[in-house]
Amino acid sequence: MLVSAKEMLQKAKAGHYAVGQFNINNLEWTKAILQTAQELNSPVILGVSEGAGKYMTGFKTVVGMVNGMMEELNITVPVALHLDHGTFEGCLKCVEAGFSSIMFDGSHYPIEENIEKTKELVKICAEHGMSLEAEVGSIGGEEDGVVGAGECADPNECKMIADLGIDFLAAGIGNIHGKYPENWKGLSFETLDAIQKLTGDLPLVLHGGTGIPADMIKKAIDLGVSKINVNTECQLSFADATRKYIEAGKDLQGKGYDPRKLLAPGTEAIKATVKEKMELFGSVGKA
Ligand code: 13P
């Protein structure tokens, strides 16, 4: 059964480790992540962006697939199904569809509006036993070839949002989605430290987990990060393994064109990436 991410992240914060959020795109992704979490006895958060939800034909399909898979694969570790960077409307749809956790990304609104909308969702999530992530300070990244720098959140605004009763907070600390550019300045630990001092026990979320060096990940965990989002890195390892399979001409040998064979190396590559991250984040054995 799916669980809210509240308890697993409070435990992570108290135990000084982080739980990975791995974004899913299809059946292979979901299966690889669930199996790895079970094998390593680690809690896990499955992230679904609105775009990925649409790709999988809608949130209800996602809920059906994940619930079915957990039962058929006998997954017993804590699993949360979480909307990633949701709009207000997207959040409501996920509540209705049976997600166990949502992120409302109101970071592009003026702070007053972010507060108003977040407050409303705090109430709705409480009624449904779901966890809620909010965001302050937008997270940069590549869009149409333009790389936006990651903003640093205002710690006082973080405190205002934290006080609304959310379960965990994503705050921009110079992190960006996708690959980091050559001239990236690194995470702002000064900002993270200031945010944690004001928000206390609230678990903090680090987006853009792909490509952040291990020492920075460790330091971020030391400063209160308890959830780390990884998406691009699984996509890169999947693509790399699939390309190698095709370049080696394996799809042309025997029944190598069978999707169950063609997608197998990519699926294994996702498992390896997820394992590496869970080991780095310290969540192995914490289920
Ligand atoms: P990456 O794609 O950079 O790993 O970021 C994932 C993320 O933060 C999803 O919200």
- CATH level-1 class: Alpha Beta
How much is the radius of gyration in Å?
A: 18 Å
CATH superfamily: Aldolase class I
Give the CATH architecture: Alpha-Beta Barrel
* Overall number of domains: 1
Distance between the termini: 14 Å
Q: Hey, roughly how much beta strand do the residues contain?
A: 15-25%
The unreliable regions are none
CATH-derived topology? TIM Barrel
Cofactors and ligands present? 1,3-dihydroxyacetonephosphate
Shape: globular
Task: Report the mean per-residue pLDDT as an integer.
Answer: 96
Strand order of the largest sheet: 1-2-3-4-5-8-10-11
**How many extended strands?**
11
Quick summary:
The protein is of the alpha/beta class and 287 residues long. The chain has helices spanning 6-15, 27-39, 50-55, 59-72, 88-97, 111-128, 155-162, 189-199, 214-222, 232-247, 259-262, 264-281; strands spanning 19-23, 44-49, 79-86, 101-104, 131-136, 140-143, 146-148, 168-171, 176-177, 204-206, 225-230.
Describe the structure.
The two termini are 14 Å apart. The chain is globular. Helix 2 runs parallel beside helix 4, helix 7 runs parallel beside helix 8 and helix 10 packs antiparallel against helix 12. The model has no long low-confidence stretch (mean pLDDT 96). It has one domain: TIM Barrel (Alpha-Beta Barrel), CATH 3.20.20. Helices cover 48% and strands 18% of the residues. An eight-stranded parallel beta barrel has the order 1-2-3-4-5-8-10-11, surrounded by nine helices. Strands 7-6-9 form a three-stranded mixed beta sheet, with no helix packed on it. The chain has helices spanning 6-15, 27-39, 50-55, 59-72, 88-97, 111-128, 155-162, 189-199, 214-222, 232-247, 259-262, 264-281, and strands at 19-23, 44-49, 79-86, 101-104, 131-136, 140-143, 146-148, 168-171, 176-177, 204-206, 225-230. The protein is of the alpha/beta class. It contains twelve helices and eleven strands. It binds 1,3-dihydroxyacetonephosphate. The site of 1,3-dihydroxyacetonephosphate (13P) has 15 residues, from strand 3, strand 11 and helix 10.
